Amino acid sequence: MSLPRLTTHEMAARLAADIPDGAYVNLGIGMPVIVANHVPAGRQVIYHSENGILGVGRSPEPGEDHDPDLINAAKDPVTLIEGGCYFDTAESFAMMRGGHLDLAVLGAFQVSATGDLANWATHDATYPPAVGGAMDLAVGARTVYVLMRHTTKDGTPKLLETCDLPLTGTACVSRVYTDLGVFEIDRDNASAHVIERFAGVSAHALQSVTGFKLVE
Amino acid sequence: MIDKFWPDMAAAVADIPDGASVMIGGFGSSGIPFALIDAVCAAGPRHLTVISNNTGSGETGVSALLREGLVDKVVCSYPRSRGSVWFERLYQTNAIELELVPQGTLAERMRAAGAGLGGFFTPTGYGTALADGKETRMIDGRGHVLESPLAADYALLSAYKADPWGNLVYNTAARNFNPVMATAARCAVVEVGDRVALGTLDPEAVVSPGLFIDRVVVREQP
After folding, report:
1. Is A3's pLDDT higher than 90?
2. Does domain A8-215 correspond to CATH entry 3.90.180.10?
3. Which of A61, A81, A104, B76 has its CA 20 to 30 A from that of A22?
4. A–B CB contacts, 8 A cutoff, strictly below
5. Which of A10, A50, A61, A184 is catalytic?
6. Which residues in chain B are closer than 8 Å to A96, comparing Cβ atoms?
7. Is A50 one of the annotated active-site residues of the chain?
8. A133/B124 Cα distance (integer angstroms)
């Protein structure tokens, strides 16, 4: 059975709709950075980049003159908005760990019913593990939202009773935005409250591709 | 008169011995001391421990040191950037040791070394494989991991401008690890785009005070 699923941009737009005006936000590399393209007009969001930028702006246009040193966490060229500033890595991570960022949006391989996050290592031992700033964001941002597909490509649930991949952080995820719905993790009861089920997705179908109990 | 400028890159790195620990500034290709790294490759010290956020890309930067077989161990947070082929080759043949450190912990361990601290407790990594074997403590109801200071024999750094005392300013996001590494190395060597006269840098805008800097070399303009 194939479920109607949101596209990546639709997922990003759904999450972007929940970012409050005036928030300081770190977007993880991969799918989360797309969220920046979908923040509703009239809402001001200040983006933090781990390599030492507050006020990350749009990508430079092709052919536009740009500063090669000015890159984001994914090492892609970016610009600085008016009022933005630079700082070193130690200060950048003090912003994260110190609870000064309102929100981090992270990608994930797996999220558990108690809000554990696994997003940095797989079981493939030939591939070097890489953690970057993920563990610091997981523990440090005031709120952590995960943006990910609901299942792996072969249909295996990514929302699980417990993660079997190496953890990035424990009990750190508040909400998960997938291509099937939006979920508030209930850490105390090891379940999740369904905030939204997208059109055409039945409660039964959703539960069947989720590894822990959903509460409608 | 204090003047920390050296005549060329080769002279500034000539005394790095076999077995030295070397911090290398930069994030991706931003703020990497490419010319100093080339000079180290030419000098050829072996069995180095390289401490850097990434492991280079393509054939330049940290990748060049790896390709030349000069590095026994890498301490880094993200050795999986696009084009980091030399690290991957060495890793897959067990020809290099990797100490993986969360990025904020990496920076703070350097800060601790530079600031004369014996370590710190951080919530980062608590309950994960990167905390295995480390002392932990509950602080205000939250799990923390004890991390140790991280110093190095040398730091190879990149900055925008320096004055003769080694006061530094940087260009945009090229700052990244460079200032904190300057504090944590016994000998901090910096390549800069420009030498400026004493008194011309705005004292309010100096990012790395010159006392942290030992040697400065002007890089040739491409």
Report:
1. no
2. no
3. A61
4. 141
5. A50
6. 104
7. yes
8. 10
